[in-house]
Amino acid sequence: MNTLQNFSKGLIKENPVLVLVLGTCPTLATSTSVTNALGMGVAATVVLICSNVVISALRKIIPDKVRIPCYIVLIAGFVTMVQMLVKAFAPALDQSLGIYLPLIVVNCIILGRAEMFANKNKVFDSAVDAVGMGAGFTLALALMATIREVFGNGSFMGVPIPVLSDNKISIMTMAPGGFFVFGCLIALVNKFSAHKPKKEEFGCAGCPSAAVCGKTSCGGKEAAVSD
Amino acid sequence: MTKLIIILLSAVFINNYVLSRFLGICPFLGVSKKLDSATGMSLAVIFVMLMATAVTWPIQTYLLTPSNLGYLQTIVFILVIAALVQLVEIVLKRYIPSLHKSLGVYLPLITTNCAVLGVTILNIDEGYTFLEAMVNSLGSGLGFFLAMVMFSGVRSTIEGCDVPKSFKGLPITLVAAAITSLSFLGFGGVIENLFA
User: Is ipTM strictly over 0.90?
Assistant: First the structure.
């Protein structure tokens, strides 16, 4: 796999949000406005790049048995750094992201990439993978936020749109709208990728709930057999 | 006392962790397929939320804040929760094997559940006292339980439905979650007016 492929797979083919369905919590919670979504995307991308690079560099040193706790500590460290940076330089963003900023620690995308990619690949490849995945995450978030903000609030990045701002569908920015738009987007992705052979879902091996999870094929297969 | 009841009820209904705060979506979508696994998972979450709050609140109030180490919150909390879950699992296995049998599978999965880390951080952010924090955790856990159990019922109904091909699986589950979450919007404002 060359560098370009490695980068671009995160954008579309293995988009962490829309195809691998990882990191659903921040996706639903911070996509109420485009500004929030971009802030969340960039913050998570920074953490992802740092953690992927460091974990890849330390992959021969970290003992296999305690690797998950090690990754969590590393990720928590980077999240704390990002949290402090955001607090200092973008206090408004810190206010609107609130609890979801520290919760980047438990974002499955980051632990998932560490487990699936960074601990098997060279530093440079891991960095490229992180940039691609981060960009895919940000892109999906921004797409969802655009739909929700334009229809729910009649504005784009805070700028009102003439006709729509008088006809707000405010349910779109509320919780149910988040679930609904997300469901429709995944259905859309399914529609366009329907003719392709079903890809191997490997994003969730890093997820601690993989064993009982019925969401993706890793746990779903077993569940289907035992049904 | 009224304040405690308000905290409890609003944590269960208005600020429901899954349906309005979007925390713990992974287990909500993943484990809600069958009623018994949904119940097991939620009971484990309630248990861990209470334990985690009982440990992290004193750590934050008596250790981190007085020594100006507030910025270590994220790292300390996630480590404490991870260690606690392991410890609880070992203790349960040794002394209460029957409980371990029913909750055991779900315990390790909760370590990186955002709902648990979320509730501990929110308790600090909201400036709750210890008792209020515990009540809030209980309410959040119960809210999670309610959402899981309700949704597993909704899902078992979807199973038998003829869904458009692209919506099969996760998309229709999300749309159903949207409708379930819509029903919870109705609780907004009820609790405050109840005691006004």
Answer: no
Query: Is A105 close to B113, i.e. CB distance below 8 A?
Result: no
Is residue B195 situated within a structural domain? no
Q: pTM for the full model?
A: 0.83
The whole-number average pLDDT for the span B146-154 is 88
Residues of chain B contacting residue A171, judged by C-beta atoms under 8 Å apart: 182
**Average pLDDT value over all residues in chain B:** 83
What domain range is B122 assigned to?
2-7+37-184
Tell me the chain B residues in contact with residue A106 when contact means C-beta distances shorter than 8 Å. Answer: 78, 112-114, 117
In a domain, B19, yes or no: no
Look up residue A74 and give its amino acid: L
Burial per residue of A132-165, b for 16 or more beta-carbon CB atoms within 10 angstroms, e otherwise = bbbbbbbbbbbbbbbbbbbbbbbbbeeeeeeebe
- Taking only the tens place, the pLDDT of each residue in A196-210 is 545 444 445 445 555
Interface test with B, best of A83, A87, A99 (most B CBs within 10 A): A99
